[in-house]
């Protein structure tokens, strides 16, 4: 569970980095799907081949030849893979609309509320209900706090942009005043030059009073030049500060660079995408539970149940097939304002490919460890790995500057949400039980 928590909390961050750099999500998800499937193959050929090959618990390669007997369980595993693929695809757009932290929090919370309840009853109530369901309640509270956090953060961003527009207007007005002052100053310089030329041409000595006035003027002119240099240095420093994370200029620059345009989008759209992703996430773990434990007795008598490694293989195969099919379509018919592309353009787009492949491997290994933990200690308790927003939010704040320069209300909601996740994770893990 601990390994899965770290892996599943890190791969969304890698994909979010690519989206913010402007790489098309279709290209990223195609690369991601490849290594996500290869991770399942790697686990199956290593962990799945360890131990004795018995009729009750056959090794991966042995069970791979028994598809004619265990196809009902294979269908459950494939259905779980399809659900997860849809959830991941929706999440990638959700990150752009409502941010990495809120997407992970709301999606994971909905997954735990629904998925944990289903797994509890599927597993014959082996987990401690008095401990399990208070943990589910904490996840539900975290989902509500996540929604409030997004609304507060969106309001902060709108206020930053509005203030930036006002400041730009004032700056333009000040620039006009500076031009007028420069004109008057240049006129003053002309009068002094005329005075000097006159005295030199007349070959006469400057009067003491005139000399003092001239020296005073030149001293003031030198002082003005020093102040101008100082102001220019400060303006350069302020220009650098404007591009810092959390500023209006940073938000606008990010919007111009990223592949999914979200400024001005309706909040309801972003929340709707995240809710859909959470519902998809809620179904894939119960599907694996059915595939590995045959709770509905769909297998013929004497046919061994799918070992977790075989179930993970079919799960990842389905996830790969659905992900590739959808994203090839999105290459030519994209959504959410993403630019269209082609297979040739995808193959030629090598920038960021290594990160996308890394994200797929992290996710594939994280899913495998989650299924292993669920088979050992109950799938309801394994839902504690959905506390992955703790990891994702940390990455989001450190790498992306999410919530920087926000209001006190936003910071209070962020802290409350993370605290609720810590409590929920601890409670769910403590409900673990040994599967007989």
Automatic annotation (TrEMBL):
Family the UniProt entry places it in: Belongs to the plant ureide permease (TC 2.A.7.19) family.
TM helices/strands, residue ranges: 32-50, 71-90, 131-150, 267-291, 311-332, 353-373, 379-400, 412-433
Lineage: Eukaryota, Viridiplantae, Streptophyta, Embryophyta, Tracheophyta
Alphabetical list of Pfam families matching this protein: Ureide_permease
Places the protein is found: Membrane
Coiled-coil region(s): none
Example of a GO cellular component annotation carried by this entry: membrane
Segment forming the signal sequence: 1-16
Main location as per UniProt: membrane
Organism: Eragrostis curvula
Key words, A-Z: ATP-binding, Membrane, Nucleotide-binding, Signal, Transmembrane, Transmembrane helix, Transport
Membrane topology of this protein: Multi-pass membrane protein
Protein name: Ureide permease 2
GO molecular-function terms, A-Z: allantoin:proton symporter activity; ATP binding; uracil:monoatomic cation symporter activity
């Amino acid at each position: 569970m601990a390994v899965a928590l770290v892996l599943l909390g890190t791969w969304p961050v890698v994909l979010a980095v690519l989206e913010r750099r402007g790489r098309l999500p279709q290209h990223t998800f195609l690369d991601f799907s490849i290594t996500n499937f290869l991770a399942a193959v790697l686990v199956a050929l290593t962990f799945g081949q360890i131990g004795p090959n018995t009729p009750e618990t056959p090794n991966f390669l042995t069970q791979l030849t028994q598809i004619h007997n265990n196809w009902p369980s294979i269908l459950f595993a494939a259905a779980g893979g399809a659900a997860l693929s849809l959830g991941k695809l929706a999440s990638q757009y959700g990150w752009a609309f409502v941010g990495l932290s809120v997407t992970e929090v709301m999606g994971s919370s909905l997954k735990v509320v629904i998925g944990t309840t289903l797994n509890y009853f599927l597993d014959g109530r082996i987990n401690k209900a008095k401990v399990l369901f208070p943990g589910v309640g904490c996840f539900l509270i975290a989902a509500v706090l996540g929604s409030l956090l997004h609304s507060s953060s969106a309001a902060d961003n709108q206020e930053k942009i509005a203030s930036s527009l006002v400041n730009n207007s004032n700056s333009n007005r000040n620039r006009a005043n500076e031009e007028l002052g420069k004109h008057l100053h240049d006129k003053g310089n002309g009068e002094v030059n005329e005075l000097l030329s006159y005295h030199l041409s007349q070959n006469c000595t400057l009067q003491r009073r005139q000399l003092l006035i001239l020296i005073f003027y030149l001293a003031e002119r030198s002082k003005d030049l020093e102040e101008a240099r100082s102001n220019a240095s400060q303006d350069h420093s302020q220009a650098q500060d404007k591009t810092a994370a959390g500023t209006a200029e940073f938000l606008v620059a990010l919007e111009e660079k990223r592949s999914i345009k979200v400024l001005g989008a309706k909040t309801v759209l972003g929340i709707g995408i995240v809710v859909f992703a959470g519902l998809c996430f809620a179904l894939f773990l119960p599907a694996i539970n059915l595939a590995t434990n045959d709770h509905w007795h769909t297998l013929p008598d004497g046919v061994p149940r799918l070992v977790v490694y075989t179930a993970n293989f079919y799960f990842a195969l389905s996830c790969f097939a659905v992900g590739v099919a959808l994203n090839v379509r999105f290459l030519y018919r994209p959504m959410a304002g993403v630019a269209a592309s082609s297979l040739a353009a995808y193959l030629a787009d090598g920038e960021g490919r290594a990160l996308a492949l890394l994200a797929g491997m992290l996710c594939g290994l994280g899913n495998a460890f989650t299924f292993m933990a669920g088979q050992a200690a109950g799938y309801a308790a394994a839902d504690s790995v959905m506390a992955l927003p703790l990891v994702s939010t940390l990455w989001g704040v450190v790498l992306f500057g999410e919530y920087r320069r926000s209001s006190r209300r936003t910071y209070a909601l962020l802290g409350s949400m993370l605290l609720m996740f810590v409590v929920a994770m601890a409670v769910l893990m403590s409900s673990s039980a040994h599967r007989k």
